[in-house]
Design a protein that fits this description.
Elements: E1 8-12, H1 18-29, E2 35-39, E3 52-57, H2 65-79, E4 83-87, H3 90-98, H4 100-103, E5 107-108, H5 114-121, H6 123-132, E6 140-141, H7 146-153, E7 160-164, H8 167-174, E8 178-181, H9 184-194, E9 202-206, E10 215-222, E11 228-240, E12 246-252, H10 256-269, E13 273-282, E14 287-294, H11 312-320, E15 335-337, H12 339-351, H13 357-362, E16 367-370, H14 379-396
Parallel strand pairs: 1-2, 1-4, 2-3, 4-5, 15-16
Antiparallel strand pairs: 6-9, 7-8, 7-9, 10-11, 10-13, 11-12, 12-15, 13-14
Helix pairs in contact: 3-5, 5-6, 7-9
């Protein structure tokens, strides 16, 4: 970067992982960019980072959108010049796209088509978009009533995946975004417990067999013409929760099929900005099938770094400030871990007989970066440990809260 004078504001909503926002602070802060963090939680580890030049607590999901817009504009004025705005979760992205005209007074961000953002953020919209453009995706059903589920059972093959069309809503209710369902009775039980008949949000998806290492990811950046300026691929080694969650340990590996499929798909739909997209390899037919599209930076983005340090956050910054984006060579074999999540996942994998001690030790060979620990920025790691300690204390002694 030859020009780092444009500040950045990272917008973290309720559902977003705190290590994702922290990764942006560190990636851009190490280049000399002034990075500010807006988060819903005063205890977010990023506030303790040496690279956090300014902080504000603001919950953009609190239902008072105009107040949140006003708070962000006030922050922009205090910063003193227009800043690049980077939302880190789906609801924050929707908030920015819905209020783009007002926010553009103080902020810079890729042009967003609100209809397209909502379509790709929705599992239902993504499914039909993939079908329209010939991109393989698991078969799915979208019941709007219990009777629809009963009709589905006449042709169902178990196990199946029970997911939410909008994952953040299910996350608030159950603490999970999906469930592997193994029987008719279990499907009906979970559907009845989780669905809101007045606002249907559940979907039933084909289960693709295979381990965590069949899940592939691509992180990329697309300019105003939907040309791909940067694209890295990799796959999960472990997930949190196991077998159905976010990456707790991942590896950067080239996959030309995933790369080219995504580039063509995004060009056809006119996508702009940072993209985080997931696929699952189906050994039954040899196809990579798209699982979800996140129209934003992913919490796993620091897994994907080139030999010269380029990542999607830096690509966005360069493009938004009129500087050239040079992709660089991906760090093939680079591993990245979310420390606390991976410890919990490893215990569960071991309990289920899927991870030996030797496999656990060997899996860390090649890890170059953690979600929280950094030798030049120790504050967030301490903050995260203290938060986890406090949460554990409350579980042991609820009266302590």
């Amino acid at each position: 970067m030859t020009d780092v004078s444009t500040p950045v504001v990272v917008l973290r909503g309720v559902e977003s992982a705190s290590h994702g926002a922290l990764g942006i602070l560190r990636s851009l802060g190490r280049m000399g960019v002034s990075v500010h963090l807006v988060a819903c939680d005063a205890q977010t580890p990023g506030f303790s980072s040496r690279y956090c030049k300014g902080s504000m607590v603001c919950n953009v999901e609190n239902g008072n959108a105009q107040k949140s817009v006003g708070s962000l504009l006030d922050l922009g004025r205090k910063i003193g010049r227009r800043a690049i705005l980077i939302p880190t979760d789906d609801n924050a992205v929707l908030f920015v796209s819905d209020h783009a005209a007002a926010l553009s007074e103080q902020f810079i961000f890729p042009t967003m088509n609100p209809a397209l953002i909502r379509e790709v953020s929705s599992k239902k919209g993504m499914y039909f978009l993939a079908k329209k453009h010939g991109v393989p995706t698991p078969e799915a059903a979208f019941p709007t009533s219990r009777q629809d589920v009963l009709d589905f059972l006449t042709r169902a093959k178990f196990p199946v995946m029970l997911k939410a069309i909008y994952g953040s809503l299910l996350m608030k209710i159950s603490g999970q975004k999906m469930f592997i369902v193994k029987s008719e009775a279990e499907l009906l039980e979970k559907y009845d417990a989780l669905e809101d008949p007045a606002n249907p949000n559940m979907m039933i998806q084909e289960y693709i067999p295979g381990g965590d290492d069949t899940v592939w990811m691509l992180d990329g950046y697309f300019n105003k013409d939907s040309d791909c300026l940067l694209a890295f691929t990799g796959k999960k080694i472990r997930q949190y929760p196991p077998s159905q969650g976010s990456t707790s340990l991942g590896i950067c590996l080239q996959n030309e099929t995933v790369r080219q499929t995504t580039i063509d798909f995004m060009k056809h739909i006119g996508y702009q900005g940072i993209l985080d997209i997931g696929y699952r390899y189906d050994a039954r037919d040899g196809l990579y099938k798209v699982l979800d599209i996140n129209p934003r930076i992913g919490s796993t983005f620091r897994l994907f770094v080139s030999e010269d340090g380029m990542d999607v956050a830096r690509a966005l910054y360069l493009d938004m400030t009129g500087q050239p984006v040079v992709c660089g060579t991906p760090r093939e074999g680079r591993k990245w871990v979310v420390e606390d999540q991976d410890i919990v996942s490893c215990l569960r994998y071991h309990r289920d007989g899927n991870l030996t001690f030797k496999q656990w030790i060997d899996s860390f060979h090649g890890v170059e970066e953690g979600g929280f620990y950094a030798s030049d920025d120790f504050g967030p790691c301490i903050s995260r440990v203290m938060t986890l300690f406090g949460q554990g204390l409350k579980k042991i002694n609820p009266l302590s809260s």
